[in-house]
Every structure is written in C-alpha cells, then in structure tokens.
Amino acid sequence: MKHQTKIRPDTKQLINLSQINQAIFPLRIDAQGLADYGFLPATTYMGAKYYLPQELPNMRRTLALGALWPEGEALIKALGQDCPAST
C-alpha cells in the first residue's frame, strides 16, 4: 500500500480563524458560526480553515449586526448580504 502525502495548499494570501477573531475583537466566532452566516473557507489544511481576506469587511459587518440587534438578519438582508435562515 502506497502512503500518500497531503500537499499543503498555498495559504500565504489567505487569513485564518485566529486572524478573523483578532479583527472582530471583542466578538469571537468559530468556523461553524462563519458557515452559518454563509462564509465558507477557501481551503482547509490539517483541520485549519483559511478564508479570503476580501471577505473580512462583510464578515465584520454581518457579525456586528447579528450580535448587536435581534433584528440583525433583517438589516443584513436590507444591505444585500446573504443571511442564514432563522431557526
């Protein structure tokens, strides 16, 4: 049986979850929370998720609106940002 090595994707131009949490401090979010808001990783390597840096402004706006107001989903939709369905 041949052992396959996993090729590391180029992540130099991407941001990771730790960098996102630094940018949205004092808020915190995990990968599932970002996915719930429609932000999916550009790539994953060894369990670490990497995101496109140009999505950060939309992430910040979406998370701030969702965290500050219960009606944040309606505001997000009004701004034209995709939003997860309410459960």
Describe the structure in brief.
With 87 residues, this protein is α+β, with helices and mostly antiparallel strands.
Could you explain how this protein is built, in words?
- A 3-stranded antiparallel β-sheet has the order 1-3-2.
- It starts with 14 loop residues before the first strand and ends in a 9-residue tail after the last helix.
- The chain contains 4 helices and 3 strands.
- The protein has helices at 17-24, 31-36, 56-68, 72-78, and strands at residues 15-16, 43-45, 48-51.
- With 87 residues, the chain is of the alpha+beta class.
- A hairpin with a 2-residue loop joins β2 and β3.
- The longest helix has 13 residues, at 56-68.
Query: What series of H and E elements makes up the topology?
Result: EHHEEHH
Q: Distance between the terminal alpha carbons, to the nearest Å?
A: 47 Å
Oligomer: single chain
- Category from helices, strands and their pairing: alpha+beta
User: In which range does the helix fraction lie?
Assistant: 25-40%
Contiguous helical run count: 4
Shape: elongated
Q: How would a crystallographer describe the biggest sheet?
A: 3 strands, antiparallel
**Proportion in β-strands:** 5-15%
